[in-house]
Amino acid sequence: MSEIIVYHGSKEIVEHPEIRMTKYHKDFYFGFYCTQFLGQATRWAVRFTGKGIVNEYQYVKDDSLKMLSFSEMTEEWLDFIVSCRLGQPHEYDIVEGPMADDTIFNYVQNFADGKISRAAFWELVKFKKPTHQMSFHTEKALSTLRFLKGYEVYDEE
């Protein structure tokens, strides 16, 4: 599949995505993060104030870009996230894979800090719901996204 729809949850409409360096390192390092799951993007959008914007993009795959893809949580995925969360940059244009949500992030941090073993980490994450994220790390990667629309969403709770 060379074209898919991806979503970005935000507090504003983002017609022109950009890579922002923030205080905290993310799962796949600094980048512009999207997901194929509308529900997940909605959770991202409403997490602070109960309302937000879901931005919808058409993503067109570019085989000239350097891409890393994890189809599931693996040892390689865990090591990559720990490295990125510790501030180690990488050379990929796009990285795709499961997300370390708040709960899983705590397990990742505990593993990185040596508080739990690998075996304990895998036991703890075994029953978590599927997540997806796609992070764009270069201007060329961002050029694969075409803004379609942005719309308001609200927390359903």
Can you walk through the features of this model?
The protein is built from 5 helices and 7 strands; from the N terminus they run E-E-H-E-E-H-E-H-H-E-H-E. Helix content is 27%, strand content 27%. Helix 3 runs antiparallel to helix 4 (118-125). The N and C termini lie far apart (35 Å). The mean pLDDT is 92. With 157 residues, the protein is α+β, with helices and mostly antiparallel strands. The protein has a 4-stranded mixed β-sheet with strand order 2-6-5-4. It has a 3-stranded antiparallel β-sheet with strand order 1-3-7. It has one domain. Helix 2 (75-85) links the parallel strand 4 and strand 5.
Binned strand content:
25-35%
Please list the strands of the largest sheet in the order they lie side by side. 2-6-5-4
State the helicity in percent bands. 25-40%
Q: First CA to last CA: what distance?
A: 35 Å
Question: What is the radius of gyration computed over CA atoms, rounded to a whole number of angstroms?
Answer: 16 Å
Are there runs of 5+ residues with pLDDT below 50, and where?
A: none
Q: What's the total number of strands?
A: 7
Please provide the ordered H/E string of secondary-structure elements.
Answer: EEHEEHEHHEHE
Tally of separate domains: 1
